[in-house]
Amino acid sequence: MGAVGSFRSRGVFAVFLALSLASCATTINDSAPTTSAANGSSGDESSTSSHDTRTSVDKSLTSKDLLTIMLKQIDELSVAMQKSDRKSATKSLEQIDLLTKIVRPRLSNLSEQLVTDFDRVVALAKSSVERNRPADADKALRFLPLIIDSLKNF
């Protein structure tokens, strides 16, 4: 009797485990429409600030000013990713990369922790476009102001 009860409990456990694991699978519906409540704008208007295609940055600006510009670019990236506008998102990411090349060395002179945090923000911005993860752009948008605020300590 003990062997039958053990066999039965193993069978029940196996079925439970199989059902549990199957229900945890992530599925992504690429055809589902996305909505954004940012700025209360409709999906018809294109991002006017995405037409700002600077190829250079004023290096005389302070790190805080450059990070503020980067914050604006990450905000535009986030909006573009929510609208599935890959072209605008790529343009914003190019600007973020350009700003990164100037800001990162300045931050490394101040604090290694700032550089680590900054690298994480940039990595999130990149992964939002490269891996089509709009939430990563939102995270970058949330974390960058913390870096800007921490500059006052240096």
CATH class of the domain at 49-154, named: Mainly Alpha
Number of strands: 0
CATH topology of the domain at 49-154: Four Helix Bundle (Hemerythrin (Met), subunit A)
Q: CATH architecture of the domain at 49-154, please? A: Up-down Bundle
How large is the share of residues in beta strands? under 5%
- Multimer state: single chain
Largest sheet features? none
Short description:
Helices cover 67% and strands 0% of the residues. The protein is mainly α and 154 residues long.
Summarize the helices and strands and which ones pair or pack.
Elements: H1 2-23, H2 63-82, H3 86-110, H4 112-130, H5 134-150
Helix pairs in contact: 2-3, 2-5, 3-4, 4-5
Structural notes for this entry:
The protein has a domain at 49-154: Four Helix Bundle (Hemerythrin (Met), subunit A). Helices cover 67% and strands 0% of the residues. The protein has helices at 2-23, 63-82, 86-110, 112-130, 134-150. Helix 4 (112-130) runs antiparallel to helix 5. The longest helix is centred in the middle third of the chain and has 25 residues, at 86-110. The model is unreliable at 24-30 and 32-52 (pLDDT under 50).
List keywords for this structure.
single chain, 154 residues, mainly alpha, Four Helix Bundle (Hemerythrin (Met), subunit A)
